[in-house]
Design brief:
alpha/beta, globular
Length: 255
């Protein structure tokens, strides 16, 4: 609207897919939410262990953050080696690969990425959003922008209706936005349904163990990694009736 100079009154209907059942299955894990005593290095260690069998992609916001993974992998990817890394992931078992600030523009279908880890909040990439963040860190505008980038990143590992990927959230700042600032509410309808379905598995685990260990939590990942039919069917059933809204949601502060 702002870029094209359109009038709000003329935006009556948004073009959208008729259903949201074509995005594949995603199981979401949030270790810090299940047990706030779990440390980020425990997640990194577990990821490195699982990466011996599966390709795991980590998205970090900066080179400084990527350095925290160097003791677990030498595969640090930025703009200089990105396409070589993507091609390798699509054709062979690479293991644990860390992408620096790459939340869009790459496709990692099927075995190229069976687990995708979003490590910490993505950087803000618009000047207006940066300004709003500087004066009001919990602004809905800022939270929505952050969650849209996170959801973009989540989409790197699921590229078709038959694809399957386990998503892992980590980092205290990401946990803060997701939970305290209710960032989950800014996910698309389909992603929110997958998040709620994953929470049901978390609930079953919490019933058994009030403070589950890192091993307990990542045991849930096997539903996705092994593409267990019961989990795949539940995901597809949950998405079957989900549609995208065609109602415009206009933020006057951005116009």
């Amino acid at each position: 609207i702002s870029a094209l100079g359109l009038k709000e009154s003329k935006i009556n209907n948004i073009i959208a897919p008729s259903h949201a059942n074509d995005i594949g299955t995603r199981l979401i894990l949030f270790p810090k939410h299940l047990n706030n005593m779990i440390q980020d290095d425990e997640i990194r260690t577990k990821a490195a262990e699982i990466a011996k069998k599966y390709n795991i992609v980590v998205i970090v916001p900066s080179h400084d953050h990527a350095s925290l993974w160097r003791r677990y992998t030498e595969n640090i990817v930025d703009k200089d080696n990105i396409w070589d890394a993507v091609n390798r992931l699509k054709t062979e078992h690479v293991g644990l690969v860390v992408f620096v600030n790459r939340y869009d523009g790459i496709d990692l279908p099927d075995d190229a990425c069976r687990m995708l880890i979003i490590d910490s909040l993505p950087p803000l990439n618009k000047e207006y959003t940066k300004y709003v963040h500087s004066i009001c860190m919990d602004s809905k505008h800022v939270v929505r922008a952050q969650m849209q980038r996170i959801e973009q990143g989540m989409g790197r590992g699921v590229r078709s209706s038959t694809d399957s990927c386990c998503i892992v959230f980590m980092g205290s700042n990401l946990a803060d936005v997701l939970i305290r600032h209710k960032g989950v509410n800014f996910f698309s309808n389909a992603t929110r349904v997958q998040y709620e379905l994953s929470k049901q598995l978390w609930g079953l685990l919490k019933e058994e163990k009030n403070e589950p260990s890192i091993d307990d939590i990542f045991e849930i990942a096997s539903y996705s990694l092994q593409q267990q039919p019961v989990w795949i069917q539940q995901c597809k059933a949950a998405l079957a009736d989900i549609t995208y809204s065609t109602e415009p949601q206009i933020d006057a502060t951005e116009s």
